[in-house]
Amino acid sequence: MTSLRSAGPSMDAPAATDSRSKIILEIDQLSVDFGKLRAVDRVSLTVREGDICALAGESGCGKSTLAYSLLGMVPPPGVVSFGQVRYRGQVLTAMSSRELDRLRAADISMVFQAAMNAFNPVITIGKQVEHVLQAHPDSYPNRQEGRDYFEYLLRLVRLDPATVWNGYESRLSGGMKQRVAIALALLLRPSVLVLDEPTTALDILSQRLVIDILNDLHAALGVTIVFITHDLALVAELADRVAVMYAGRLVETGTIDEIFYAERRHPYVDALIRAVPSVTGDMAAIKPIPGRVPNLAELPVGCRFAPRCPLVQQQCREVDPPLLADASGHAIACHVVNAELAGGGSR
Ligand SMILES: Nc1ncnc2c1ncn2[C@@H]1O[C@H](COP(=O)(O)OP(=O)(O)OP(=O)(O)O)[C@@H](O)[C@H]1O
Fold first, then answer.
1. How many CB atoms lie under 10 A from the CB of residue 100?
2. What is the CATH number of the domain that holds 245?
3. Which of 229, 233, 259, 310 has the fewest Cβ atoms nearer than 10 Å?
4. Would 195 be classed as within a structural domain?
């Protein structure tokens, strides 16, 4: 029998018994609304220093909106309607735009989904780096140290510094631009790097390279990485923790082992894993998830996954399931799975 408790912002093991690193980001009951549409609904999640954390789920489930809120950058007309995001204990959702600018320069940096289109085509990459250094004169004792650090980053992302520095973005392939964008995002030595779909627009070889590079950067710099993806194969390769979202809600969170190798998991997560060829390894075993993600403006009563769920029971169509965590912090929002676990099922 597994003892389950309500999963609050600190879903990890209690601090007194916890030898893991400090919490760096804390998302506490966060809701983000676009008019009447709630894109993120009371999501709580913690990220610890040095973690590689994946935010996973199908398109439209709220991953990007959640990631933007980590930088205080929810796009208008979106508003944080409830809850907080804290960075090292400071309430980021209450910061002024000046404080947020400072935070985004020095602490939390983001590589956007279309990062490879974000360069200015008429000036060299080196000039663009100079502009960043000029805009943040306090980041390095002198400009040369900033240039040297960028050169070091380019080597880490396996690019030739001289070619990149003097080149224009039109001379770089999509994969190279993505790697330059990652190096640029790390230029001011942030503690947290957020990446939106870091491999989506790339061919398979460039995807492999980006995964290896992110692992290298994590090892060399100790940077905390949060990345968004719909690709569970990428989650398995890169992350050590994962939070799976469905229709604006967090449905399961835990370590890779807890989610990929547990006997019981959320039926949506189970379906996502079965839908990915490189995770199952067997093309014949791939099962697309029937049905569609609900329209966030017309959500079903009860569990949002109920209309697509193979385990659905009457209770699921009436009551929204709470996210319940076991002692290690592995949390699931499913009436059926949690009743089994609480009643003696194993995890
Ligand atoms: N600027 C916006 N204005 C209005 N609605 C928005 C805006 N941005 C996002 N939304 C809505 O919020 C919901 C969540 O979108 P979001 O982009 O966060 O999901 P996602 O999981 O990241 O999807 P994708 O992988 O397709 O980007 C969607 O219903 C979307 O239509």
1. 16
2. 3.40.50.300
3. 310
4. yes
For residue 43, give its domain range. 5-107+190-342
* DSSP annotation of 329: S
Mutate-to-test residue for ligand 1 from 59, 69, 74, highest number of ligand atoms within 8 A of CB: 59
| Nearest partner of 55 among 270, 259, 289, 235, judged by Cα | 235
Looking at the DSSP assignment, which residues form a beta bridge with residue 80? 32
Kindly state if the Cβ of 39 falls inside 6 Å of ligand 1.
yes
- Check residue 222 and give left, alpha or beta (phi > 0: left; psi -120 to 50: alpha): left
Tell me if 180 is assigned to some domain: no
CA pair distance 153, 221, nearest whole angstrom? 10
263-298 pLDDT, tens per residue?
789 999 999 888 876 555 566 666 777 788 888 888
344 CB burial (10 A radius; 0-12, 13-18, 19+): exposed
- If one residue of 32, 63, 295 were mutated to test the ligand 1 pocket, choosing by the most ligand atoms within 8 A of its CB, it would be 63
Sequence-distant (≥ 6) Cβ neighbours of residue 91 within 8 angstroms:
84, 85
197-243 tens-digit pLDDT: 998 878 888 888 999 999 999 999 999 999 999 888 889 999 999 99
**C-alpha–C-alpha distance, residues 81 and 38, integer Å:** 9
* 51 contact partners, CB below 8 Å, separation of at least 6: 21, 24, 224, 225, 240, 241
How many domains are contained in the chain?
1
Q: Cα separation of 339 and 98, whole Å? A: 48
* 78 falls within a domain: yes
